[in-house]
Amino acid sequence: MMTTTERELPESVSERAGVRAGSPLPLGIQETGGGVNFALLSRNATRVRLELFDHPDDATPARVFDLDSVRNHTGDVWHVWVAGIGSGQLYAYRVDGPYDPPAGLRFNFNRLLLDPCATAVSRSPAWDFAAARGYDPTAPGRDLTLSQRDNARSMPKCVFVNESFEWGADEPLRHPWSKTVIYELHVRGFTIRPGSNVAHPGTYQGLVEKIPYLKDLGVTAVELMPVQEFNEHSVTRTDPCSGRRLRNYWGYDPVVFRAVKGSYARSPAPGRQNREFREMVRALHAAAIEVILDVVFNHTAEGDEWGPTLCFRGIDNAIFYTLADDKRHYRDFTGTGDTVNANHPVVRDHILAALRYWVIEMHVDGFRFDLASVLGRDGAGRLLANAPLLERIAEDPILRDVKIIAEAWDAVGAYEVGSFSERRWAEWNGRYRDDVRRFWRGDDGMMGAFADRICGSADIYSGSGKGPESSINYLTCHDGFTLNDLVSYRDKHNEANGDHNRDGTDTNFSANYGTEGATTDSGTEDARTRQIKNLLLTLFISRGVPMLLGGDEFRRTQDGNNNAYCQDNETSWHDWGLPEQHREIVRFTRGMIAFRRAHPVLSKEQYYTDAEIHWFGPRSGLPDWADPKQKLFACLIWEHEHSSLYLMFNAGADAVDFHLPTVAPTHQWHIAVDTASKSPRDLFTLGEEVPVQNLCTYPLTPRSSAILLAMKPNPARGGATV
User: Fold this and answer.
1) Of 436, 351, 366, nearest in space to 406 by CA
2) 165 alpha carbon, distance to own chain's centre
3) Is a pLDDT exceeding 50 seen at residue 12?
4) Is the residue at 73 inside a domain?
C-alpha cells in the first residue's frame, strides 16, 4: 500500500475570512447564505482539497482549501462554505487516501478530480485521458505503481452554474404512450453536415432550427443520444483508409451524470451549455415534442484498471464500482471494462439525484436507460429479483410522470425483454426488431411471430402484467444498420473503425436484393424502396410505441457500417440533400405517422380481443400458421361502426390475390396504402382513399403490403369520408 506524495499545504480553512465549515447536504455545490457550499462524499479518503481556477487550462489554482478532517467532515461527507463564488467559477477536487489496488483503493492526490454532482464541465479541445491515469505505465506492475505526475493543466474543471432561466409557461407534456412517436437522433450529427441549412450546425440551437421539420414529420418525442458530458477524444485508433484519428461520436461513456455536453453549445463560455440545453427543451415543448434522454448509468469513462482517474475512481473506487474478488480488477457486465455498483445505497441515491436533476432543473420528459439490466445487479454481479434501484426509479415521487425505457439486456447475457422490473418500465423490444426484419426478408416460419409483434407482443409482455405500451417497437436504432443499409447490405462493413471489421454484430437479418451497397440498377432500387415501405408500414400499424431512427425517413446511409460509434464524420451525419432525393420515402413516412394518428385503434394501450381482430389467409380461411413456408396473411381490424381496416402482408416471392371480407351495404373497400405502388398512389391522404374496383379480391405483388378501409363512398370527391 502506498500513500500519495505530500504536497505543500495551505493554511487551515478555519483561519480564513469568508470560509466556514459548511454543510454535508446537499451533495455537490449550492449557493446558500451569501456564499457557496461544496460537499463531496468519500468514505475512505484521508484528505480532501478543493481548488478554484480562473481558466479551464490553468495548471495552478487561484485559491486552495484543504478541508479539516474534523471541522469539514460529517460522516462520509467532506464540506466547506466559501464566500465570493460567482456563476461560472471553475473548481475541482484532490482526494487523498491509500493507493492499494488489490484492496480496491486507488486514491491519488496528484490527480485533479471532477465533482460527481457537477452540472457542467469546462470544454477541453484535446482532453488527454492518458495523462489522467492514476498509475505509472512505465513502472513494473503498471497500475500497481502510483503516478507522481500532476495533470491539472490537461484536466477539464467543473463549472458552478447559477444563472436564472425563464421557463415561462413551460410544463411537462405528458403525452400518453398511445400518442407517442419517438425519433432517435444525435444532437451534433443531426445538423453538423454542410447543407443542413441551420445557422448553428451541430448544436442544441441547430436542433431547435429543425423543429419545423420534426413537427411536419409528425413525431411527438425526440430521444437524444447521450448528452451527459463525455470525452470525444478518448478513441485512439485511426481510420486505416484515410489515416484520420477516430473520435468518440456516440458518447456512451459519461464522466459525470448531471453535466450537459459542452461542445454541443454554440457558445464556448463555461456553463453556457446549460442555458442552451434549456432553450432547446423549451422550444421543443412549445412544439409539443417531448425530450427523452438516452442515459448511461451502468459504467463510466474510467474503464478498467488501465483507464484514467477522472472522478469516481479517485473519490471512492470501492464504493462506486463493482469489483472482482481480486479488487484490483473490475467486474465487467457492460463491455467497457467497468460496472457501476448501482445498487449500493450511496450510488443508488446518486443516480436518483441525477435523474431528479434532469427532470426538475432541465425539464426533460423521460429517459432511455442504456444496458438497463446492469442496474438490476448487486455488488457481486447477480441479477436481483426486485432490484432496489429499478423499483426506486419507478416509484420515485419526482419521476412518477416521466417516461422510463429500459434497454433490457447487458453485455454478458442478461436478456429481460418482457420481464424487466415492474409495469412502469417500457422496454426496447429487440424481438420486435428481429422478427419484423426476418419476416420481410422472407425467412421461413416467421408469420406467427410477425402477427404477434404487430398486435403488441402479448406473448412477450402479458405474462408479467405489462401491456403493449411497454413495447418500444423499432426497426433500427443508432446501434446497427440504418433502414437504408438494412435493405442494401448483406454483411457489415466496419473497416473504417480500425478493428479489421471485427466489431459490431454479425446478426443483422439484412439483405441486399442483388447488389452489396449503392447501385443504379432500377430493379434492385425498386425492391429496396418497397421493402423500406413495408417495414415503415409495419412499424406504424403495430400496437406498442414506434421509434424511428433519425434519417431513416430519407434513407440515411452509413455505407454498411453497423457500429459507427467512432465515426464523427459524413458516415454518421445527416445528409440534408437526401430528403429531396428520397422525397417518396419522406412522404410515405409522414403519411404513415398521420395514418396511425387518424386510426387510434392501432395504438390502443390494450391487446386486441378476438372481437376486434380476425385473421385470414389469401382465400378467406384462417392462415396456415403451422406451415413454415407460408409468408402471407391478412387481418381485419374493427375500428368502429363506420370503419374497419383490412391489412394484407405478402413477404413471399409470388403475387397473390386476397379475397376481401364482405362489408355493410352502405360501405365499400377503399385503398389507403399499397407499398407496391409509386407515389402518390402508395399512400392516400386521409379522406382521399380510392375505392377498390374489384369487390371480391385485391392483388398483392411479391414483397408488398396494403391497407384497405371499409368506408362510406363520397361520390362528390371520388374518394371517401369516414
Assistant:
1) 366
2) 26
3) no
4) yes
Domain match, 86 and 216 both: no
Query: How far apart are alpha carbons 561 and 510 in whole angstroms?
Result: 13
CATH number at residue 256: 3.20.20.80
Give yes or no for residue 221 having a pLDDT over 80: yes
Per DSSP, the three-state class of 462 is helix
- Note whether 649 and 702 are same-domain residues: yes
- Three cell numbers at 256? 459525470
338 noted as active-site residue: no
Question: Tell me: the pLDDT tens digits for 19-77?
Answer: 999 999 999 999 999 999 999 999 999 999 999 999 999 999 999 999 999 999 999 99
DSSP structure class, residue 437: H
Find the catalytic residue in 232, 332, 370, 485. Answer: 370
Q: Which of 402, 166, 403, 171 is nearest to 286 (CA)?
A: 171
What is the chain's alpha carbon radius of gyration, rounded to the nearest angstrom? 28
Judge contact between 451 and 520, C-beta under 8 A: no
The whole-number pLDDT of residue 6 equals 40
pTM exceeds cut of 0.90: yes
For the stretch 499-532, pLDDT in tens is: 999 999 999 999 999 999 999 999 999 999 999 9
HEC states along 97-160? CEEEHHHCEECCCCCCECCCCCCCECCCCCCCCHHHECECCCCCCHHHCECCCCCCCCCCCEEC
What's the whole-number average pLDDT of the chain? 95
Cα 608 versus chain centre, distance? 29
Residue 84 to residues 32, 60, 180, 474: CA-CA distances in angstroms? Answer: 11, 19, 47, 51
- Dump the DSSP string for 518-532: ----HHHHHHHHHHH
Whole domain around residue 675: which residue ranges? Answer: 609-721
Q: Find the CATH number of the domain harbouring 630.
A: 2.60.40.1180
pLDDT in tens, 71-110: 999 999 999 999 999 999 999 999 999 999 999 999 999 9
Check residue 664 and give its pLDDT.
Answer: 87
The CATH number of the domain where 49 resides is what? 2.60.40.10
Give the tens place of pLDDT for each residue, 110-131.
999 999 999 999 987 779 899 9
163 is catalytic: no
Residue that is last in its domain, among 428, 451, 486: 428
- What is the distance between the alpha carbons of residues 253 and 232, in angstroms, rounded to a whole number? 10
Helix (H, G, I), strand (E, B) or coil at 390: helix
Whether 230 maps to a domain, the answer reads: yes
Distances (CA, A) of 462 to 81, 110, 409, 423, 469: 53, 54, 19, 10, 11
Structural domain ending residue among the three candidates 385, 405, 428: 428
pLDDT band at 244 (very low <50, low <70, confident <90, very high): very high
Answer whether residue 449 is part of any domain: no
Q: Is the same domain home to 131 and 204?
A: no
Same domain for 197 and 148: no
152 with 202, same domain: the answer is: no
Nearest to 445 by CA among 454, 435, 455, 432: 435
Looking at the fold, whether 146 and 212 belong to one and the same domain comes out as: no
Annotated active-site residue in 407, 443, 469, 568: 407
Cα distances (angstroms) measured from residue 484 to each of 432, 487, 517, 553? 18, 6, 10, 9
Claim to verify: residue 288 and residue 372 sit in the same structural domain: yes
393-439 pLDDT tens trace = 999 999 999 999 999 999 999 999 999 998 999 999 999 999 999 99
Q: What is the total count of domains within the chain?
A: 3
Helix, strand, coil percentages for the chain (3-state, nearest 5): 25, 20, 55
CA nearest to 295, candidates 241, 346, 226: 226
Q: What are phi and psi of 141, to 5 degrees?
A: 85, -10
Q: Are residues 188 and 136 in the same domain?
A: no
Res 5: pLDDT: 43
pLDDT exceeds cutoff 70 at 715: no
Q: Is 304 helix (H, G, I), strand (E, B) or coil?
A: coil
Asked, for residue 276, whether it belongs to a domain, the answer is yes
Given pLDDT bands bounded at 50, 70 and 90, which one contains residue 620? confident
